[in-house]
Write a structure and sequence with these properties.
With about 300 residues, the protein is an alpha/beta fold. The chain contains 12 helices and 9 strands. The strands form 2 sheets. Strands 4-3-2-5-6-9-7 form a 7-stranded mixed beta sheet. A two-stranded antiparallel ribbon has the order 1-8. Pfam families: RrnaAD.
Amino acid sequence: MPKIKAEKKARVHNEIAKQGIQFNKDFGQHILKNPLIITSMLDKSGLRPTDVALEIGPGTGNMTMKMLDRVKKVIACEIDTRLVAELQKRVQGTPYQSKLQIIVGDVLKTELPFFDICVANIPYQISSPLVFKLLLHRPFFRCAVLMFQQEFAQRLVAKPGDKLYCRLSINTQLLARVDMLMKVGKNNFRPPPKVESSVVRIEPRNPPPPINFVEWDGLTRIAFVRKNKTLSAAFKHSTTIAALEKNYKVHCSLHNKEIPEDFDIKQKVQEILTSAGVDQMRARTMDCDDFMKLLHAFNSEGIHFA
């Protein structure tokens, strides 16, 4: 009769199992258990002994402990108080205790302190808001090496013309250089997620582009609602026209500018698109430079998106 191999479990996971702690999928808790993947992520992040490192969702501390070995300080942000207690136990009475700062709470609602670098296996359901929270964080950090759901990672790095190119792609690439580092199979996690994962390196552009990001986001939101349509068609939608007209009237009021009686916002928008040479272009083929020129063309005519 063939031998049945006993299931291997990490010591920390055994301890947690004994206490009846179940990983909470509502928090996106899929603990990265493969030490080789953890080491590879830390190697690719270029950690320095003088760094303050941010980790989001440290879980049981597998990555945290390795990071504490390499940097001056780790700031770990964890929402689950049960796992916070486990992490505190792991460092208690060790030289690492003084190097670890734990922030308990939702990272999206937390004002993050200064950090040099961020390395994390993040909860996948907060991927998009977290990316922009990090990219709009000041002062600037050097880089972030983050684990994402594979399709989300592919969207981050997608280029104009790619099938997955979208508003997320262009908004991220406006603010940062983004590179795909490696793919990670679902069996490297406990419990395994339903999807494959990828690790991405995000390096903020410093200085950032001289652009109002809220305005930029408003423009790309309109253009990418139907990314395969021409911009001329995208800007004919009644709700879009109504919002732009309202913004235009506010702009004129603030600048004591009189609006002609025969003013037609729809016609004005089409004239700007045509003069900028983008009326027949589609969002899926346009890059950051194209949208920067278009935003400037709209703003110089008093039309704003925020």
